[in-house]
Amino acid sequence: MSYLRSIRPLAHTAGVTLRHPHRIPSVQCTIPIGISIHPQRRNFSYEATVSGIWQSLSQSAPVAYVQHGMINLHDLSGLPWWATIVLTTVGLRTLVTLPLAVYQNKILTRLEQISLEMPELIKELKAETAYAMKKFNWSEKEARIMYNHSLKKQWNKLIVRENCHPAKTMVLLWGQIPLWIVQSVAIRNLVSMMPDPTAIEAQIAYTELTLGGFGWIPNLTELDHSLILPVTLGIINLSIIEIQAASRTKLPSKLQTIFTNLFRALSVLMVPIAASVPSCLCLYWVTSSAYGLGQNLLLLSPRVRRAVGIPLVPSELTHPYQHLRSTFGAKLATLTNIGSSNHPPSTKA
Q1: Cβ count within 10 A of residue 232
Q2: ∠ CA(59), CA(65), CA(66), 5° rounding?
């Protein structure tokens, strides 16, 4: 029947005669010579798909809440739009990402604490496995299978006991990435007067954005042609990555090194992207990254960690800020030495 529906429009235009339409097996048709009939095909359009996703996102409830929240804050406080964006960013990150960051650190410390219990458990399991090999006449392969099974079981018991599943170490990303996307789309809606460009509220907000800038960016709907904000964004993001790498007390694994280099590349890539978006959106990205930098530095302090209930673990740095200063100083000295060695002083004959 779907095939008949597809050729019905063509039948009317090409003079096709259908006989006994109620008997599908005996459908007969006469088609003029030179006319071919093909089933209709649906062509996939990448642009239409992306446009549909973007439209759905811009009209979603979370984006609408954030967008109207910023408008209401601007109207009630009387602040210029640049200050409204900064204040909204700080408020949302304090309510959402800061508690998640504290919780993530607690999970990481619990995992480290139970890992300290594993050497004694491993010693007991090895002794029990050796005894079982003699008693039950196990082969080395059977003993290895039973040992790995028992070790995994003990590890899972410790995870359940401390309620610290390793997947919970990603809880900060689960909250931070959706928040970043939602607020970015909300600010973009203000610039493009979405979701309803004919609404008077959207037109007023757009007009106020053109006048609500600061310093070298009086119009927040335009690009930052000075590139100050995009370059600042790249520097802040790279600083966050380098601080996280320098605060590790153990040698990074191969996977950690790969992700560190990947995030470095993404931080550099964000500079031209930030230079191609309205300055109000770039201002939000810079404010969010600056908050993340301060959040990371704050949670390195032992005093702050004890105040928020993060337990002490052996990997914690006693003097984290001195450690960072000495680490970055050593890296800077290395780069300086490399630069000076590439340009040896010239000698006169």
Answers
A1: 19
A2: 100
Tens of pLDDT, residue by residue over 149-181, are 999 999 999 999 999 999 999 999 999 999 999
Angle at 274 between CA 257 and CA 185, to 5 degrees: 100
> What is the crossing angle of helices 81-95 and 61-77, to 10°?
130
Alpha carbon distance 151, 157 (integer Å): 10
- Where is average pLDDT lowest: 9-18, 223-232, 288-297, 324-333? 9-18
The rounded radius of gyration (Å) of the Cα atoms in the chain is 31
φ/ψ of residue 30, rounded to 5: -115, 120
In a 13 Å sphere around the CA of 162, the CA atoms on its Cβ side amount to 21
Helix axes 171-192, 81-95, angle to 10 degrees: 160
Long-range own/partner contacts, residues 61-66 (CB < 8 A, 24 or more apart) = 62/178, 62/182, 63/182, 63/185, 63/186, 63/189, 64/186, 64/195, 66/92, 66/182, 66/183, 66/186
Mean pLDDT of the chain: 85
* Cis ω before 21 (30° cut-off from 0): no
Helix axes 81-95, 279-298, angle to 10 degrees: 40
Interatomic CA distance for residues 330 and 326, integer angstroms: 6
3-state percent helix, strand, coil for the chain, nearest multiple of 5: 70, 0, 25
Q: What is the pLDDT of residues 314-346, one digit of tens each?
A: 999 999 999 999 988 888 888 787 767 666 555
For tokens 């996307």, what's the residue?
181
> Please, which pLDDT band fits residue 57 given cuts at 50, 70 and 90?
confident
Q: Specify whether the backbone of 345 is left (phi greater than 0), alpha (psi in -120 to 50) or beta.
A: beta
Tokens of 250: 């153990």
Q: How many CB atoms lie within 10 A of CB 60?
A: 14
